[in-house]
Amino acid sequence: MPTHLKSAHFASDPEAFPILSKVLLGTLRLGPVGTSAFPAPVLSEGLAVFKVQTALFQFGFTDTPQSAVFDQQTAAVVSQFKSFWHLSPSDGVVGQFTLAALDYEMI
Known about the structure:
Pfam families: PG_binding_1 (PF01471). It contains 5 helices and 2 strands; from the N terminus they run ααββααα. The longest helix is centred in the C-terminal third of the chain and has 13 residues. It is globular and about 25 Å long. Strands 1-2 form a two-stranded parallel ribbon. It is mainly alpha-helical. 31% of the residues are buried. The chain has one domain: Orthogonal Bundle (Muramoyl-pentapeptide Carboxypeptidase, domain 1).
């Protein structure tokens, strides 16, 4: 299991880093409003969401502007990314393994 962020994109932002670290540890997830809080609480907007949206944009998974709001379109793009990486479940929620894959891509 990954224990720290390695890419400058995720690790160098002092405001987003604490939130993203919680995602990497599995104590927080990123997802759309209405996502079940099990197995971890869900954050649906803010800088951490923006950072994930920016990474997905840079990989070419979306051409939609980043809004810092985890909407259904973001969930669909996350699901696509997870399928590409063979991550299960391929839902639209960013958990520890999804963030680790995004971080790896940003190195």
